[in-house]
Amino acid sequence: MKSINIIGGNTLCGEVSIQGSKNAALPLLAATVLIKGVSVIHNCPRITDIFHMIKILESIGCKVLFTGNCLKVDATDITNTALPEEYAKLMRSSFIFAGALLARKKEVSIHYPGGCVIGKRPIDIHLDAFSKMGAQFVEKNETIYANAKKLTGEEILLSFPSVGATQNIVMASVLAEGNTIIRGAAKEPEVTELCSFLVKAGAKIQGIGTEILKIEGVPCLQEVEYKVVPDRIVAGTYLLAAVATKGAVFLENAPVDHMNSLLLMLKNIGAKIHLEGNNIFINGEGANKSVPYLETEVYPGYPTDLQSPLMAVLSRAEGISVIRENIFENRFRISGQLNRMGAKIFVKDNHALIYGVEKLKGMEVTAEELRGGAALIIAGLMAEGSTKVAGLSYIERGYEDIVRDLKCLGAKIEKG
Ligand code: UD1
Asked: Could you read off the pLDDT of 172-227 as tens digits, one per residue?
């Protein structure tokens, strides 16, 4: 298993530029299937999840060219609607192809989606909506076969503002017959990005960024060129790493407007933050306060993806912090690894109680999922001595080159 080796204790200092957003880019790749022609996506991050999505696109007949951070997808001919199991199983985002292929080809077969081991992650909300729009399903050997004579616009009320389900329903409805209204839609920037991409391609969507999306089906979409927004989770990870090491870091090209809840929390724990356009300067020197209570929430609340990295930081804060995880039940798994490093974290159901300790000690730990892996790297930066974080492949699912970036900020860090 490939790993990352860190010698802790260095204060991060310097400047780093933020990559394109993973969670915004992945649905755009699926959305290219809706367009009979070429889509050009700029600022696309070179991460494993994107490479896997490309494999899926190629397997269904698309021609793909990925040069630097520019991705060109020619989806003129879709020759296959069965997604390869090996890639579909690897990541939950693969299920986003369901809406796109149903819309374009009126059929899809797809293995139950995989992804991080952070919880049950069901897909009932997606399937209920597709079914309401006219799709039928058969399930066999963990594969879902779906088809529809036609998809029709419907009024859909979501029982939870699921990001993935909202994106899937938007994809299914842009080419559907008639009008679709999604009530209780997710408002995450990654949903807004998908809608903006589709509108640029000729889709008719109203209410973008709100919990009511109104979509008027159109017969076809046109070729499109689009630039992916910077990654708010990567930016957040680096801000937390700066605070963890009491460093002073300048983030260039950060999605400042999407980061309010994190920036507020960082100010509350004592960080000094200066915003300048799309740049963030953070000084984490005095940022050692605990967080009396924080819960993960849907946007614009505190993001679940930054909960584990925060937990690592709070493990060394002055005082007791409490986190409630509302989105994914297994996100606290990482506490066991942090405790091995000397943290004092107690978990009961969806609450974590974090007693700040004076020091963490470096050792061999294992990442079992993406954001937990980022948390272990942050812990390694704070710890005394050397830390080996096994499971680099999980971290590479979302960070283009976290070792390069942290090294450029002065961390003693290498790939093992
Ligand atoms: C989630 C995050 C998103 C993050 C992404 C990657 C939220 C609301 N969503 O999106 O910000 O970028 O992970 O880590 O924070 N659910 C159901 N049935 C469904 C779909 C979802 O019960 O059909 C539940 C899930 O179990 C979970 C919650 O809804 O508890 C959020 O799921 P959803 O937003 O769909 O997850 P992702 O799209 O993966």
From this structure: 999 999 999 999 999 999 999 999 999 999 999 999 999 999 999 999 999 999 99
Residue located nearest, by CA, to atom 21 of ligand 1: 162
Mutate to test the pocket of ligand 1, among 23, 94, 234, 327 (most ligand atoms within 8 A of CB): 327
Q: What is the pLDDT of residues 8-58, one digit of tens each?
A: 999 999 999 999 999 999 999 999 999 999 999 999 999 999 999 999 999
- Domains belonging to the chain, first-starting first, are 3-18+230-415 (3.65.10.10), 22-227 (3.65.10.10)
- Nearest protein Cα to ligand 1, atom 17: 122
pTM of the model: 0.97
Contact assessment for residue 325 and residue 331, using Cβ atoms and an 8 Å cutoff: yes
